[in-house]
UniProtKB/TrEMBL annotation:
<feature type="transmembrane region" description="Helical">
    <location>
        <begin position="98"/>
        <end position="117"/>
    </location>
</feature>
<feature type="transmembrane region" description="Helical">
    <location>
        <begin position="175"/>
        <end position="193"/>
    </location>
</feature>
<dbReference type="GO" id="GO:0016020">
    <property type="term" value="C:membrane"/>
</dbReference>
<feature type="transmembrane region" description="Helical">
    <location>
        <begin position="124"/>
        <end position="143"/>
    </location>
</feature>
<dbReference type="GO" id="GO:0055085">
    <property type="term" value="P:transmembrane transport"/>
</dbReference>
<dbReference type="Pfam" id="PF01740">
    <property type="entry name" value="STAS"/>
</dbReference>
<keyword id="KW-1133">Transmembrane helix</keyword>
<dbReference type="InterPro" id="IPR002645">
    <property type="entry name" value="STAS_dom"/>
</dbReference>
<feature type="transmembrane region" description="Helical">
    <location>
        <begin position="26"/>
        <end position="46"/>
    </location>
</feature>
<feature type="transmembrane region" description="Helical">
    <location>
        <begin position="330"/>
        <end position="361"/>
    </location>
</feature>
<feature type="transmembrane region" description="Helical">
    <location>
        <begin position="58"/>
        <end position="86"/>
    </location>
</feature>
<keyword id="KW-0472">Membrane</keyword>
<feature type="transmembrane region" description="Helical">
    <location>
        <begin position="255"/>
        <end position="275"/>
    </location>
</feature>
<feature type="transmembrane region" description="Helical">
    <location>
        <begin position="448"/>
        <end position="468"/>
    </location>
</feature>
<feature type="transmembrane region" description="Helical">
    <location>
        <begin position="287"/>
        <end position="310"/>
    </location>
</feature>
<dbReference type="InterPro" id="IPR011547">
    <property type="entry name" value="SLC26A/SulP_dom"/>
</dbReference>
<keyword id="KW-0812">Transmembrane</keyword>
Length: 552
């Protein structure tokens, strides 16, 4: 098996794993587990499922992502980016449909890993990733407004952000000030600890403080216990979700969305980890691990699993050195669940909403967003289009349209980068027969030299073709220098073939110089080959051919 398909766990133990590294990984794993405990429950609640499913996801998915993945420090679990998609899937198909879509997305990710598709995920333009991340953050915050203010709605909360805000505004007279106070306390403690004690687990401390305050003061704020009845003290037995052909077809689009977002999020997190550690992840096996983690998470009643940037960064900063820290983080979460499950009933939902509000704010890459708005018109259009479509339409649609706009922008920029024009290089020609070298300048009235510089592809074919058509029948000898063309596609080759036909009708000798192997192969496939054209290694060689013919 090639190294790119070997989990990093195997590589770490092959290098040698000692007690010192185990201690470092244990401390990092405990630190990440403390961060992941309230966050996993908050994400699950915001996704429209019970909080225990978030813990199942972090325990099962987090363990497998670390054990089988292609990054030494990646931490897997439920992610805020999936809240919108998961909530919509639960609304349309129920929890059983969600579990089925999660398992199907896992199969897709495994296939993507074996097909080595991870390298293509990395081609998504930077403005698209910044735009959809900011859009997700806005939607996450909007989804927390109900619990932040303790609002009481007469019906189900709408999914579309505009309808949601309108419905919440109508319920403004039902504000629960105990919930507002609890959320404000949670946010305040997190921000204060981040400034005064950045290495302390601010989120867990804030949630614990809010829980104690609500319980002691007997504030009328809704808690996990009052809404969900608490969480079970352990994992359920694995079970397959109900299967039917109709259900498979119905949830297939959701599964595709899960797989696409999971691949983007996990590989983006792995890239961030690479930048922090100086290591390189293995994208193919990382996708396979994410896929298997999603399949097993669904079997245990969990939701979507992906690599999480915040928890991965926490792992690195806490001193995690290997996948063992990620596996221990899952073990610590399981211990918390076994030993402290009854205490979870006292956690106020407003406190978890405060946690997610901070997460949403941190998700927005504010300096990058503003820099892209100022950088260029094209990047700003891609960024804003992705952001607005994610917020007001749909996440996957935003990614696809943003990627398409980014591709068009790239094509336009590449098309403008190519140049074609007449040149008069001084060429030293060796005539042979013991004669001296003599300079030949392309000022022969019967010879013209044109040079193409840059990638010659369909985006620039029309511009180059217009230039070539103007001169193809004006001289007896037409030299086309392709030495500065690193790549040529079939559209470009077809343009040259059209120029060649015009030259043949006018009796013009057509010579191509400096063509690289890929360019030559593409030209030959489009019948631009000897004897229709002369192929020479350089312009001097072409001029020598012309001079030799004259003296023959």
């Amino acid at each position: 098996m090639p190294d790119t398909m070997v989990p990093k766990t195997f590589s770490v133990f092959a290098e040698g794993y000692d007690l010192a590294r185990l201690k470092a990984d244990a401390f990092a794993g405990l630190t990440v587990a403390i961060v992941a405990l309230p966050l996993s429950m908050a994400i699950a609640i915001a996704s429209g499922v019970t909080p225990d499913r978030g813990l199942y996801t972090a325990i099962i998915g987090g363990f497998l992502v670390s054990l089988l993945g292609g990054s030494r420090v990646q931490i897997g679990g439920p992610a805020g980016a999936f809240i919108v998609l998961v909530a919509a899937t639960v609304t349309r198909h129920g929890v059983d449909g969600l579990l089925l879509a999660t398992a199907m997305s896992g199969l897709m990710l495994v296939a993507a890993g074996y097909l080595r598709l991870g390298q293509y995920i990395k081609l998504i333009p930077y403005p698209v990733t910044v735009g959809f991340t900011a859009g997700i953050a806005v939607i996450i915050f909007a989804s927390q407004l109900r619990d932040l203010f303790g609002l009481t709605l007469t019906g189900a909360e709408p999914g579309a952000i505009v309808d949601k805000v309108v419905e919440l505004a109508r319920a403004a007279d039902t504000v629960n000030w105990a919930s507002v106070l609890t959320a404000a306390l949670t946010i305040g403690v997190i921000l204060a600890l981040r400034r005064a004690r950045p290495h302390w687990p601010g989120m867990l401390i804030a949630v614990a403080a809010a829980s104690v305050g609500v319980a002691l003061l007997q504030l009328p704020a809704e808690t996990i216990g009052t809404r969900f009845g608490g969480i079970p003290p352990g994992l359920p037995l694995p079970a397959l979700p109900p299967l039917s052909l109709d259900k498979l077809v119905a949830v297939f689009p959701d599964a595709v969305s899960f797989a696409l977002l999971g691949a983007i999020e996990s590989l983006l997190s792995a890239v961030v980890a690479d930048g922090m550690t100086g290591r390189r992840h293995r994208s193919s096996i990382e996708l396979i691990a994410q896929g298997l983690a999603n399949i097993c998470s669904a079997l245990f009643g969990g939701i979507c699993v992906t690599g999480t940037i915040a928890r991965t960064a926490t792992n690195v900063r806490a001193g995690g050195t290997s996948p063992v820290s990620g596996m221990l983080h899952a073990v610590f979460l399981l211990l918390f669940m076994l030993l402290a499950a009854p205490l979870a009933s006292y956690i106020p939902l407003a406190a978890l909403a405060g946690v997610l509000s901070i997460v949403a704010w941190n998700m927005i890459e504010k300096p990058a967003f503003m820099a892209l708005l100022r950088s260029s018109y094209g990047d700003a259009v891609v960024l804003l289009a992705t952001f607005l479509i994610v917020v007001f339409r749909e996440l996957t649609e935003g990614i696809v349209i943003g990627f398409a706009l980014g591709a068009v922008l790239f094509i336009d920029r590449m098309a403008k980068s190519i140049s074609v024009g007449e040149t008069t290089p001084l060429a030293l020609v060796k005539p042979g027969n013991g004669e001296k070298e003599h300079p030949v300048v392309a000022d022969d009235p019967n010879t013209v030299i044109y040079r193409i510089s840059g990638i010659f592809f369909f985006g620039s074919a029309a511009t180059v073709g217009t230039v070539l058509d103007r001169i193809a029948d004006q001289r007896r000898n037409f030299i086309l220098d392709c030495s500065e063309v690193p790549f040529m596609d079939s559209t470009a080759a077809n343009v040259i073939e059209g120029t060649l036909r015009k030259a043949e009708r006018s009796g013009v000798r057509f010579i191509i110089t400096g063509a690289r192997s890929q360019v030559r192969r593409t030209l030959y496939q489009h019948h631009v080959r000897p004897p229709r054209v002369l192929m020479r290694a350089s312009v001097p060689a072409a001029l020598e051919s012309i001079r030799a013919e004259k003296t023959a």
